[in-house]
Amino acid sequence: MLRAAVAAKTPLGVKAKEAMDKGELVSDDLVVGIIDEAMKKPSCQKGFILDGFPRTVVQAQKLDEMLEKQGVKVDKVLNFAIDDAILEERITGRWIHPSSGRTYHTKFAPPKVPGVDDVTGEPLIQRKDDTAAVLKSRLEAFHKQTEPVIDYYSKKNIVANLHAEKPPKEVTVEVEKVFFTANAAAFSNPDSKSYFDE
Q1: What is the C-alpha to C-alpha distance for residues 108 and 123, in angstroms, rounded to an integer?
Q2: What are the C-alpha distances in Å from 116 to residues 87, 95, 103, 108, 191?
Q3: What span, in angstroms and rounded, lies between the C-alpha atoms of 102 and 79?
Q4: Do residues 171 and 162 make contact, with C-beta atoms less than 8 angstroms apart?
Q5: What 8-state DSSP symbol labels residue 25?
Q6: Could you tell me if 94 and 104 are in contact, meaning their C-beta atoms sit under 8 angstroms apart?
Q7: 180-188 contacts: CB < 8 A, separation 24 or more?
Q8: CB 49 within 8 A of CB 195
Q9: Rounded distance between C-alpha atoms, residue 195 and residue 146, angstroms
Q10: Which CATH number fits domain 46-93+130-188: 3.40.50.2300, 3.40.50.10420, 3.10.350.10, 3.40.50.300?
Q11: Mean pLDDT, consecutive 10-residue segments, the chain of 198 residues?
Q12: In the chain, what are the domain boundaries?
């Protein structure tokens, strides 16, 4: 949503770009404003998913306040729970073909020839942030800032803890079950405005 607002040069998108161009973080109020703006578009009328936001309790509170003004609320929070060591193995083993975006993994989805794209034969790269050192820093920030967000939403009984160490297909099934349950609950309450409508 943030990139779309910047690309569309909306008033909030212009402000966000100014902050990013200066190397500053986009303020919580600005991000929530962009979400508020995006929710009014036809593409969001049947629902939307936020990925990577909110990252702090303050952001969660600001998001909830904005949603409450519109008569809606966060229906479900998905917590992809995984041990840090497993996450490190997954992240540091990831390799990408830059021009196509094809992703490989040294253990779980290796290319036919190590370091080479299966389709083009071109070299694969590893993203700069797919290293153990960068991941360690990101995980420290996650445990310090984002885990309290899970606690915040747990008190509202809307967190679904998913076992992300499972194979991707099994995790996908878990996600689908959560969405199906949330959607069914919304349909059983005629006064509910669900963001999981099909």
Answers
A1: 19
A2: 23, 9, 11, 15, 54
A3: 26
A4: yes
A5: P
A6: yes
A7: 182/75, 182/76, 186/75
A8: no
A9: 23
A10: 3.40.50.300
A11: 84 87 85 91 86 93 95 93 94 96 95 98 94 90 92 96 93 93 62 40
A12: 1-45, 46-93+130-188
Rg of the Cα trace of the chain?
19
- How many helices (DSSP H) and strands (DSSP E) are in the chain? 8, 4
Start-to-end Cα distance in the chain: 20
In degrees, to the nearest 5, what angle opens at C-alpha 185 toward C-alphas 179 and 186? 90
Residue written as token pair 């969660």 = 60
What are the angstrom distances between the C-alpha of 163 and each of 59, 62, 83, 121, 170?
25, 28, 10, 35, 9
Which pTM does this prediction carry? 0.77
